[in-house]
Design goal:
With 254 residues, the chain is of the alpha/beta class. Helices cover 20% and strands 21% of the residues. It has helices at residues 15-25, 94-104, 173-183, 208-215, 219-227; strands at residues 4-10, 31-36, 56-60, 80-84, 88-89, 109-112, 115-118, 129-133, 143-145, 147-148, 152-156, 187-190, 199-200.
Length: 254
Amino acid sequence: MPQITASIATLPRRISQLKQTLASISPQVDRINIYFDGHAESAINELVPYVDTHFMRAAHDTQRRGDAGKFYWAHQIKGYHFTCDDDLVYPPDYVETMIAAIERHERRVIVGVLGSRFTAFPIGYYCSRAGHLGLLAANSCDQLVHILGTGTVAYHTDTLEVNLSHFPRVNMSDAQLAIRAKRRGVSMVSIKRPKDWLQALVVAGASIFGEFKRTRNDDVKTALIQAEAPWPTLPPIDGSHEQPRISRRRTAPS
């Protein structure tokens, strides 16, 4: 069985939520990577009761990378890589279900839960999403999407080579992973699952999407997505139980 690695980027104000996240995901994986974005180095001591530190790898980086910290070790990882958020509780069958989806599609896709797709040429990163598969929503079948939320992503490293250089912009990892996958001809799939399969934790302070709702400004992310146009046309999101047709990989220059 290939090694299973989970990687998380976390903020200091979310240490209590992180403990719950680790308690849910750590029993399901072989290794945990935690990128501490702005924490004191002593923060790791608080996590000892929640994760076996013998298989935990931590980084305290002076360069604030935001959610891209999930990919701090990506170039070193072999096998199944799960990128997680510090404000989610993952179900006991999370890793098993996600790996089954990867293998169902013959390791040709990136899988996830939260997903969305754009119109032919988006005029807004958030505002021009033609279909949205929410984090807590049920999904009756696997659905092709343009974007997956990196808090609920998994892939086999044979499918896509990823490293930190692919995430130069802070707190834009969803868009940058989608662009990397598109350039390499790798599809993204939001997997079938029941309603409320994951649990979202209440957190204090701003979030990435919360900042957009406050400012209504997604210009930078929109520019990133528009620069990659055209995006492929995808079948409508519906209740069909047919598996999506995954085209053979066609790669563009990396």
